[in-house]
Amino acid sequence: MSSRRMTIATGSLLTASFSAVMIFSFSAGADDPGPMSDKGGKAVDGAPAGVKLTTSLPEKIDVDNSSQKTAITATVKNGGTKDSGEIRLLVVGFDGLSVKSVEGCAEIAEKDLPEGSNSGYACAIDNLAAGKSKSYAVDATFDLKKEGKICLPVQDADGKKTFWQQGPVPFGANNPSPNAPATPLLLGTDNSPVTPGSDKAGNDAGGEELPRTGPADQVLPLGAVGAALLSAGAVGLWWTQRRPGRSEA
b/e per residue, 28-50, with b = 16+ CB within 10 A? Predict the structure, then answer.
């Protein structure tokens, strides 16, 4: 009887261990954002010597067709040889893409949002060591009847300089699937609305075209962010036109 009990107990422990490994593996895989890209990104103001800041976004996201919810991973990296010092990453949504929360970051007040945006968060980073990166889990919604864009500027602590800006870059699908559980959207693709003939122009109340970054475009970086976020007395967040940043070696 003693031997039989030992065999049963051993079998139960092995089964439990196997189940735990399976659950852990699935959870780890579920958080994997897949291939990342810096598409739509460009250096703006010169970063401190030895510091090279960039961002990246998933090449593909999935939007739940019933809830409109989606998850995005925003990553900032210091590819230089020296520590960054205090910086901040902004995560800003435009048109059909609304940022609902960013883990560990402060919401930007509506009055301080850049022109044309609908939502945004500021992520303060005390220091990003050389060769290191930091990722943020972004919860968002995407109205598939509209186009949608996201923007990731990386600034100094007081927002006076924008070292790098990715976007506003679109997520979209050329052939949305309204009857499927979810619709995959690709980075750098303008969204074709699910409803034929939907009014895309209705998103731009001011009628002014939103800035984009790219090899042939001028960069219009975000300026200082509002007082409610990181420091008192800041004058808000706006777009200012600058000459393209110097080329990286």
Answer: eeeeebeebbbbbbbbbbebbee
Strand arrangement of the beta sheet that strand 97-102 belongs to: 36-37, 53-58, 69-78, 133-142, 97-102
Is the CB of residue 242 less than 8 Å from the CB of residue 44? yes
Q: Looking at the chain, how many residues does it have?
A: 249
Nearest to 155 by CA among 109, 214, 114: 114
pLDDT in tens, 121-140: 999 999 999 999 999 999 99
- The amino acid sitting at 189 is T
Distances (CA, A) of 3 to 7, 8, 10, 12, 13: 6, 9, 11, 14, 15
Tokens matching residue 184: 């995959």
Q: Write the pLDDT tens digit of every residue in 62-82.
A: 999 999 999 999 999 999 999
Full-prediction pTM beyond 0.90?
no
Cα distance from N-terminal residue to C-terminal residue, the chain = 74
Residues 152 and 134 sit within 8 Å (Cβ to Cβ): no
